[in-house]
Design brief:
The protein has 124 residues and is an all-alpha fold. It is built from 4 helices and no strands.
Length: 124
């Protein structure tokens, strides 16, 4: 019983911490993609929160045609890590790597759809 409660608490913390940071990095990619004003205080907060790890990734993976491939790859890596930790805590087993990549892609796509849905709802 105690181990199950600790697993549930660990799952909650992993989902909250990774989910929030993945959301912020996804917002950075979306804001760059739509050409948002980066002098906006919200944009400045997003850039400051994601700049440290992304500046190292951007040295390896450049931006091409206005698309931040470094940010997208960082998002994908974070999502895979989150899902790997969640499945290892829930199932106590290592998931299949192909299924993990498909699951991560679907998770990111769902979050992107949610961002645009709530942005449309907020603007209306």
């Amino acid at each position: 019983m105690m181990l199950n409660s600790l697993n549930q608490a660990g799952l909650f913390l992993i989902n909250i911490v990774f989910g929030l940071y993945i959301f912020i990095v996804l917002m950075r990619v979306v804001l760059q993609w739509i050409g948002a004003d980066f002098y906006n205080p919200i944009s400045q907060l997003v850039i400051r929160a994601t700049n440290m790890p992304l500046k190292h990734v951007q040295r390896i993976i450049p931006t091409y045609a206005g698309i931040d491939f470094a940010g997208i790859s960082w998002l994908f890596a974070l999502t895979v890590l989150k899902l790997l930790l969640v499945t290892s805590l829930e199932l106590a087993a290592f998931p299949h790597i192909g299924g993990l990549f498909v699951w991560a892609f679907a998770d990111l796509l769902g979050q992107l759809v949610n961002i645009f849905f709530y942005a449309i709802l907020f603007s209306a």
